[in-house]
Amino acid sequence: MGRGAGGGTFSDAEIPLHARLSEASLGRLVEGIRLYRQLPGATLLVSGGRVFGSGSDAESMRELAVSLGVNPADIRVDEESPDTETQALIIRQMVGDDKVLLVTSASHMPRAVGLFRLAGVNVVPAPTHYVVQDNAGFSPADLFPDSDSVLAAQRVAYEYMGIVWAKLRGLL
């Protein structure tokens, strides 16, 4: 599985295209397509380079978007960016001063917005793929630990380390 700026893809051509995207990438793409359809004349920009030789997130997302009815002429692709910092710089070159709806996982949004704004991209946050949700009501299952909670804690730790690393490098 490649884990890049787009959230991750599997490169196994034997499985259906939608199943090759990680949960994060699929959530981001679905929200991007939803927003694209709400904004006549919009362009869908998909991003994420190859990581460790796997297929690029951007190309997998582009293929799936086309299969879901997005006009290929309305899609722009960044297959080069291996991380969010590089992604912001490349996208700045692609969009200039245009406003960009930045669709990414809610847990990743604070760091992504900071890096994109530092690169000069005029972003409007459009968070998706929420890993932590406040559900009303109580269930006896709430008393027992589960793997989803461990994964959510891992995601939070990853993002905080990314923010600290960016601050140590003077980026945020």
Shape: globular
- Counting helices, strands and paired strands, the structural category is alpha/beta
Low-confidence stretches: 1-6
| Distance separating the two termini | 29 Å
Order of adjacent strands in the largest pleated sheet: 1-2
Radius of gyration: 17 Å
> What proportion strand?
5-15%
Helix content: 40-55%
- The total strand number stands at 4
Number of helices: 6
Look at the structure and give the mean pLDDT.
85
String of helices and strands? HHEHEHEHEH
Biggest sheet layout: 2 strands, parallel
From the structure above, extract its key features:
172 residues; alpha/beta; two-stranded parallel ribbon; 6 helices; 4 strands; disordered N terminus
Summarize the structure in short.
The protein is an alpha/beta fold and 172 residues long. The chain contains 6 helices and 4 strands, in the order ααβαβαβαβα. It has helices at 17-20, 23-38, 57-67, 84-95, 109-118, 147-168, and strands spanning 44-47, 75-78, 99-105, 122-128.
